[in-house]
Amino acid sequence: MCEPAGDILVFLTGEWEIEDACWNINKKINNLGDNVGPVQVVPLYSTLPLAMQLKVFEPGPASLRGGPPGRKIVVSTNIAETSLTIDAPESLMRALEVLNYLGALDDESNLTTLGDIMSEFPLDPQMSKMLVISSKHNCSNETATIAAMLSAPNCFLRPREAQKAADEAKTRFGHIDGDHLTLLNVYHA
Q1: What residues contact residue 77 under an 8 Å CB cut-off, 6+ apart?
Q2: Given a cut of 50, is residue 82 above it in pLDDT?
Q3: Which domains are present in the chain?
């Protein structure tokens, strides 16, 4: 209400904090009634379905006949800022260490046979290695399913107005051994 006309971008740290902020902003706007122009509050985080993410690029609401200007408020994680705070050579060294630890690079930073196979997958190195070695543990089908579920948008939505019901629905798929097997249960269901 105190800012000049224009859209607002708010950076927060995580999905639940973003959803909570959006809910609180909408509640505050509804309580103010006609004292503010039309406002559209849009969350943005990586596990949000693509259609919801694309709302960020839609035009904001127009002002109502002579009333206060319309405004869009985007509440997002600040991924770009965190990537800029890490020095590039440091990031490169960390990446090489991870690839060496996974066996994709040897001690001279040359690609190993395993690393060559891993590079064929359009996935993070950890997930690529998981898929490659799964056949040695007779769990290739399950591993491929889990990799696919981890690569897709989050299948568990938790809207503010139905959090309890969403949590109850999620518990039906829960597995005592963790989230990966919970995702496997979702796929099989």
Answers
A1: 11, 12, 13, 14, 15, 18, 44, 45, 46
A2: no
A3: 8-81 (3.40.50.300), 114-188 (no CATH)
